[in-house]
Amino acid sequence: MSHDLLENNKEELFKLIEIDSDLAYAAGLFLSGAKRGYRHEGWDDLSDEEKNIIRKTMGKMGIKWMVYSHPERNVLLFGEMENVEAYRKLAKFPISSTDTSYVKRMGEVLDYPPCCTESFIVRGYNNPETEFLQDFSILFHFPCRTHCERTDALMPAYRMVWKFISQLNFQER
Ligand SMILES: [Zn+2]
Q1: Which pLDDT tens digits describe the chain residue by residue (173 residues)?
Q2: Total-model pTM
Q3: Using CA atoms, how far apart are residues 162 and 159, in angstroms rounded to an integer?
Q4: How far does the centroid of ligand 1 lie from the alpha carbon of residue 155, in Å?
Q5: How far is the CA of 159 from the centre of ligand 1 (A)?
Q6: How close is the Cα of 147 to the center of ligand 1, in Å?
Q7: CA–centroid distance, residue 139 to ligand 1 (Å)
Q8: Number of structural domains in the chain
Q9: Helices (H), 32-113
Q10: Which domain holds residue 41?
């Protein structure tokens, strides 16, 4: 995991925070190697100026991205090109589709631990075991259990990027 890459892209991450802090956080996770794909569902709600800023900052940070049309709205997807390409086949489904093959492949594209995707398919949002997990809110997926090894392995990088983005967010500009 690389803190330098975050430092080097501070200005760009700054600009993303002003648009949407989750977007900046996900970009930071990608830069640090902790997350290979992210989907931002709010593309249609952005102004033209904000869209331009995103195009420029993604370019400067060297992050590959695309905008995809779902039946109900457009979403921004960024990450490894391999994943971005795999997304093409999924865009014909509604964003919140519960189709098992869709959820499974979306889990791969968005880089969620496979065990957690499997658990999500079975239990959905109702997983009493993990509801009160510490740092639950800094994850993008629902952990399958209290001590999911795959999730635990991600936590150091997630905490590091979360701290970095939070500090940037509250810095004097
Ligand atoms: Zn898991």
Answers
A1: 568 899 999 999 999 999 999 999 999 999 999 999 999 999 999 999 999 999 999 999 999 999 999 999 999 999 998 888 888 889 999 998 999 999 999 999 999 999 999 999 998 877 777 666 667 789 999 899 888 999 999 999 999 999 999 999 887 55
A2: 0.92
A3: 5
A4: 12
A5: 18
A6: 8
A7: 12
A8: 1
A9: 48-61, 81-87, 100-109
A10: 3-170
- Token duo for residue 165: 């983005």
State how far the Cα of 93 lies from the Cα of 131, in Å rounded to an integer: 28
User: Which structure tokens are listed for 9?
Assistant: 């892209």
Strands of 37-40's sheet in order across: 37-40, 74-79, 65-69
**For residue 109, how far is its CA from the centre of ligand 1 (angstroms)?**
16
Whole-number Å distance, alpha carbon 113 to ligand 1 midpoint, is 6
Ligand 1 center–CA 156 separation, angstroms: 16
